[in-house]
Specification:
The structure holds 2 protein chains of 2 kinds. Chain A is mainly α. Helices cover 76% and strands 0% of the residues of chain A. Chain A has 8 helices and no strands. In chain B, strand 4 and strand 5 form a beta hairpin. The longest helix of chain B has 17 residues. The chains are: A mainly alpha, B alpha/beta.
């Protein structure tokens, strides 16, 4: 029994049907972790990108070091660090929150690069025209630069959303009951790994296909009339 | 002719080791149409870019409308952002690459700054834009995006956009250099009309010598960061006194020579 559901070992099909609710419970955790981590990565990445673009080196440099560190060390190391080291300093987060934080932190280093590339792709002439027209820097950013950067950013961000979903199983090592962990527990208790693991693979495929289609739809729907994307 | 709206006093501009403007002294009077010609790298465009505050200066003082541009009124303290904004408002600029906002319609390109910067009501900004589009002959393209227009049309929109801010000085930075030859005429036509019908002060950097000769009150020949020669167009084009000017004009009048 898991999450209040019983498995039925009478036939492979019955087994598959009976464990589906358990896996879907795990899937829901996977989705929550991915979405939370991605949201954090989107916000924090923008912060990094802005800091790294700062004219002052004492601001830009530490941001560059932190993002380099986040990008070049394994997710698992960062996760262990947050899970085992933070509590020593009195910061105790639930395993799920720790996992989402680790995902968000690592991916913020990637999204920072996407933002940077997207913002830099807006030609200098656009900045000059905005200045010549006396638009304020804030107005320039929100109405001239960002609308032209977004269509360049969305496809790359979509790839990271799919990628972050596929990294969620790493959280199982700190006891988060995401989908893969659920499947492993089912396998441990029933000695049948083939069916639960195959189902995890299939569910993952469906999830990532849906996420990709969603990103593509967003990309198609976005107003990008006239913005040269190449 | 003693009311300079633009005045460069000993202005020095350097990019690294390269001195672009070497103690430049230069004035433009109110309402005057002045064309700057000269070989590339002679600092022609830099003059416009300094005026539009796209580039700073390393020495000297620039006056616009009787006030220092890069300094506060005392001529010493570096200009605050508020001071620069106020001075910028007196000028409009037309760029070589048009620099229209690609994600905005033609109408929005023209109304954006009047609404956001001047605080004009939308209806009024639209009326102003329509008037200007009529001036540049593009009324029927109001709802289009820049990429749907030809280069010449885009540049005409850019001229309308600059005019919508009601500047007293209009700066043209090689406005036809990025255009296909067959589109140059329509843009020059608009500039010519502006020159003839408006009391705008116009400062134009161009390689279109015949045009310069026709519309300018005065032609200035730049060479190596300084003014080598200046005078009435007839003078400069028919009887330049400097050998360097003569050489330059010879190369530009024979465009086929490499």
């Amino acid at each position: 029994m898991l999450f209040g559901f019983e498995w039925d070992l009478s036939s492979p099909l019955a087994f598959a049907v009976s464990i589906l609710p358990m896996l879907l419970t795990g899937m829901w955790v996977t989705i929550q972790a991915a979405v939370l981590g991605f949201a954090l990565a989107l916000v924090l990445g923008l912060v990094w990108a802005v800091l790294k673009a700062a004219p002052l080196r004492i601001i830009a440099w530490p941001a560059a070091v932190v993002t380099e560190f986040l990008r070049d060390t394994p997710l698992l190391v960062q996760l262990f660090f947050l899970y085992y080291v933070l509590p020593e300093y009195g910061i105790v987060l639930p395993a799920f929150m720790t996992g989402a934080l680790a995902l968000g932190l690592q991916y913020s280093a990637y999204t920072a690069e996407v933002y940077r590339a997207g913002l830099q792709a807006v030609p200098r002439g656009q900045h000059e025209a905005a200045l010549a027209l006396n638009l304020t820097p804030a107005r320039k950013f929100t109405h001239i630069v960002v609308p032209q950067a977004i269509p360049r950013i969305v496809p790359a961000m979509g790839n990271y959303l799919v990628s972050i979903m596929k990294d969620v199983p790493v959280l199982s090592v700190v006891t988060v009951l995401e989908m893969l962990n659920v499947a492993r527990i089912i396998g441990d208790r029933t000695f049948d790994y083939l069916i639960p693991l195959s189902m995890v693979g299939a569910i993952y495929l469906v999830m990532t296909l849906i996420a990709s289609a969603g990103v593509r739809a967003l990309d198609t729907y976005l107003p990008k009339e006239g913005i040269p994307l190449k | 002719m003693s009311d300079p709206i633009i005045r460069f006093d000993n202005v020095v501009k350097r990019f690294g080791d390269h001195t672009v403007l070497d103690r430049l002294n230069f004035t433009v009077n109110r309402g005057e149409k002045v064309t700057i010609i000269g070989p590339s790298g002679s600092g022609k465009s830099t003059v416009l870019r300094i005026l539009m505050t796209l580039e700073g200066i390393e020495g000297g003082v620039v006056h616009v409308g009787g006030e220092p541009l890069w300094h506060e009124a005392d001529g010493v303290t570096p200009a605050s952002e508020a001071h620069l904004r106020r001075k910028r408002a007196e000028m409009g600029m037309v760029f070589q690459q048009f620099n229209l906002f690609p994600h905005m319609t033609v109408l929005r390109n023209i109304t954006e700054a009047p609404v956001r910067v001047l605080g004009l009501p939308k209806a009024e900004a639209k009326a102003r834009a329509e008037e200007l589009l009529e001036l540049v002959g593009l009324t029927e393209h109001m709802a289009k995006f820049p990429h749907q227009l030809s280069g010449g049309q885009q540049q005409r929109v850019a001229i309308a956009r600059a005019l919508a801010m009601r500047p007293s000085i209009l700066l043209f930075d090689e406005p036809t250099s990025a255009l296909d030859p067959e589109l140059v005429g329509e843009v020059l036509g608009v500039i010519r009309r502006l020159a003839e019908e408006h009391d705008l002060t116009m400062l134009l950097v161009t390689h279109e010598m015949r045009f310069a000769r026709e519309v300018s009150d005065r032609v200035v020949f730049f060479d190596q960061g300084r003014i080598r020669e200046e005078g009435a167009p007839e003078e400069i084009f028919t009887d330049p006194s400097e050998e360097r000017t003569r050489e330059f004009l010879k190369t530009t009048l024979e465009p086929s020579s490499p």
